[in-house]
Write the structure tokens for this entry.
Amino acid sequence: MFERYTESARRTVFFARYEASNFGSPHIDTEHLLLGLLREDKALIRRVLLTADFDAVRQEVAGRIKPGPKSIPTSVDLPLSEHAKRALMYTAEEADRLNHRPIGTTHLLLGLMRDETFASAESLSHLGAHLESLRKRAEGFGEQSGIAKVRPPITYHRTVTGPEVIVIHGLKKSVEEVRRDVNNLRGCYWKRKPWKQRNVAMTKDRKKVSIDLSLAKKSSEFVLVKGGWKKDQCAICRWDLYESEDVSHGTGFTNGKDWICTECHARFIDDDFFSATYSDIT
Ligand SMILES: [Zn+2]
């Protein structure tokens, strides 16, 4: 069953078994698998839930577990619950859907979210994760989340003949362009905020827009349009940010002028991607 699992995914299942034993649970359930993931791949949890408050995440998940009367020795081989079995089946399906041969922690996370009646899915949805947006991003996560650890990383990062590329939100971008944008933006202070529509001043024919609202007061050519600014783009990857419940579109980081998406913030601003991960493999 676990032949295709990466080392990291196997360790996740191992930790899930350990969690179930500690809680005295008679089965390994989806909550235990999620706790296993929290032990094994904090970077993945941080990217998906956009939080580093792992204690709070752990509490949310553990709160759904009914502990047994006493812990069970880890030497006892606990069976998987029906939900956990189905989650692992979905995990393999998610990897297949992405044409990924090795099954990694990202696929496990997708599997744990697939059925909203899973306790793991309830926790993740409560913590702000969305199945569809994670699926979209899953390809981009590859190089950092154990999916690609069994692949040669250099072929993953280079096209055969073209320039070096990097995958953000599942789309390929030129590394040089991203590096240039990141260099210009790293010096700013970025504050995390939900994206909200803003008022703008617009010419009466509605053809031209300005964020200088005083124009609407000072000039008879302009009118104030409430909520007229409906969208920004990530200054690094051009991902759309707009009012949305979906964290990946609805929340970003701003320096008061520009916006960047949460994925770019986590990978390039928070983590020193270019001097750490990237230089290791080029
Ligand atoms: Zn971005």
